[in-house]
Design goal:
Helix content is about 30%, strand content about 15%. It is an alpha/beta fold. Strands 5-4-6-1-7-11-2-12 form an 8-stranded mixed sheet, sandwiched between helices. A 4-stranded antiparallel sheet has the order 14-15-16-17, with no helix packed on it. Strand 16 (about 420-425) and strand 17 (about 430-435) form a beta hairpin. The longest helix has 28 residues, at about 260-285. The radius of gyration is 21 Å and the shape is globular.
């Protein structure tokens, strides 16, 4: 009996792209015409949730199928542990040509995400190099520099020195456009050389940073809704747009002066830009004749707050703007023009890809295949390291009196009935019915309904060991 021909897999993560702003998710602006077309011909998962609120733990979940507290990759430990099998590693050992293209310096070789890729291209400039040196004292950092030299990590070392002298000016953060275009060039080359190659199917992972601040939409998208005289920095007033969101929280007296309408305009224009890139990639696959044999996924790692609930960015809060993400799949076996209403999660792609690739590999219970008849009873999102953000905020303004409930770890749980609960270790609770209150404006409070959300599942996340839990070797799932 001939072996089943394995599909190509193209997995695109639009960094910081929130479902709320996609026209195929009901947004009032036509921000995603190309993705809309793909969704109309494929499957749209209406209620997909991120496992956390920022890049590192979300990508680690995507690559391992585990919730953040189980893979331990967070602000306290910026590395994907080698004793946890990674999706590219499994696919590579099954015969896939594995290619990774990342525009995000957190999804990089120094953070452990190179593992399993035959080819791994990083298109992000210098803006994340400060993460390379983790030592708290000068002596520790000098030792790290020496280790980089001894290990031949001249590229990483050069980036670090360049960052110190150029002050992070050449970065995907300040302007993602050239890096997105560079990534697209690499994609073109990969598709031309490897798509349909006789030596094995293709697994192509792409991270694009277009919708991550700072917003600099290119022509012809710039000015579609925004004022041509305005910039992201001008819209924020005296609050710094770069390099992070801490300044917004450290200077509350300036928050009322932010022009949220213009910031939203810039965000929407950036989304239009990355949508055009997605359209171009999909067209290349289609014109090459591989649309029917390619599992094509468009998703995001997390979303973004643009003033909603008084929040900005994605360092705090687990509202829908941050954790409700898009997921669109184009693959004939999944059907055409379908909308799936039950909750799913980003890291369900781990089990799904292993199943469609026909890999008999044990998957963790955290990940449920989208091919399976089994449905999620709850979706969870975990912010396990917000205390680290509080340290940075207070470092900017030591006299700040900050009482936000999000200054500690938090958890959000959504059940099958779309009842959503948000909890913190201090006992703070919010409860929403997403069917009638997607914007989360009417807090139902803590009542009997909360029990249906699986709110008690949050309690285990607040144990101190959840901050930086390394998975013991004996807990490694399977063997490669």
């Amino acid at each position: 009996m001939p072996k089943k021909k394995l599909p190509n897999i193209i997995l695109i993560v639009l960094d910081t792209a929130r479902a709320k702003s996609f026209s195929c998710y009901g947004y009032h602006r036509k921000t995603t015409p190309n993705i809309d077309r793909i969704a109309e011909e494929g499957v749209l998962y209406r209620w997909c949730f991120a496992p956390s609120n920022w890049t590192l733990p979300c990508h680690a979940s995507l690559f391992t199928g585990l919730y953040p507290v189980n893979h331990g990759c967070n602000a306290y430990s910026l590395y994907l542990y080698e004793n946890i099998p990674a999706l590219p590693e499994i696919l590579q050992n099954t015969g896939y040509n594995t290619v990774g293209i990342s525009c995000n310096g957190l999804v990089s070789e120094p953070m452990g995400f190179r593992r399993g890729f035959n080819v791994f291209k990083e298109c992000w400039g210098l803006g994340f190099s400060n993460f390379f040196l983790k030592g708290e004292t000068r002596k520790e950092r000098v030792k790290e520099l020496i280790d980089l030299l001894r290990g031949g990590k001249f590229r990483a070392l050069g980036r670090w020195f360049a960052t110190r002298f150029l002050k992070n000016r050449l970065s995907v953060i300040t302007n993602s456009v050239p890096y997105t275009r560079k990534a697209l060039g690499v994609v073109k080359k990969v598709l031309k050389e490897l798509l349909g190659h006789s030596s094995g199917p293709l697994f192509l992972f792409i991270n694009l940073m277009g919708t991550h601040a700072v917003y600099n939409p290119p022509h012809p998208f710039r000015g579609t809704w925004s004022s041509r005289r305005m910039t992201h920095q001008k819209a924020l007033g005296e609050i710094k747009a770069y390099p992070d969101y801490y300044d917004f929280y450290a200077r509350p007296e300036l928050q009322g002066k932010v022009n949220w309408a213009e910031i939203t305009n810039f965000y929407d224009e950036e989304l239009c830009f990355v949508d055009s890139v997605i359209g171009h990639i999909f067209e290349m696959v289609e014109s090459a004749g591989f649309k029917q044999s390619t599992f094509f996924v468009i998703t995001s790692d997390h979303g973004e707050m643009l003033g909603e609930h008084g929040l900005y960015g994605h360092i705090w809060g687990l509202y829908n703007e941050v954790i409700h993400i898009p997921m669109i799949i184009s693959f004939p076996e999944f059907g055409f023009g379908r909308i799936v209403e039950n909750p799913v999660q980003l890291h369900d792609l781990f089990a799904t890809i292993l199943e469609i690739a026909d890999i008999p590999y044990p998957t963790p219970k955290d990940s449920i295949s989208l091919c399976s008849s089994e449905k999620r009873t709850v979706a969870m999102s975990q912010d396990v390291d917000s205390e680290m953000d509080l340290v940075h905020i207070m470092g900017r303004n030591p006299d700040l009196s900050l009482t936000s409930p999000w200054a500690s770890r938090s958890c959000a749980v959504v059940d099958e009935a779309l009842i959503k609960a948000i909890a913190t270790p201090s006992g703070y609770r919010e409860l929403y019915d997403l069917r009638s209150d997607y914007l989360e404006e009417k807090n139902l409070g803590y009542n009997r309904k909360a029990e249906t959300t699986g709110l008690l599942l949050c309690d285990g996340l607040f144990a101190p060991e959840g901050q930086n839990r390394k998975i013991p070797e004996q807990e490694r799932v399977g063997d490669i």
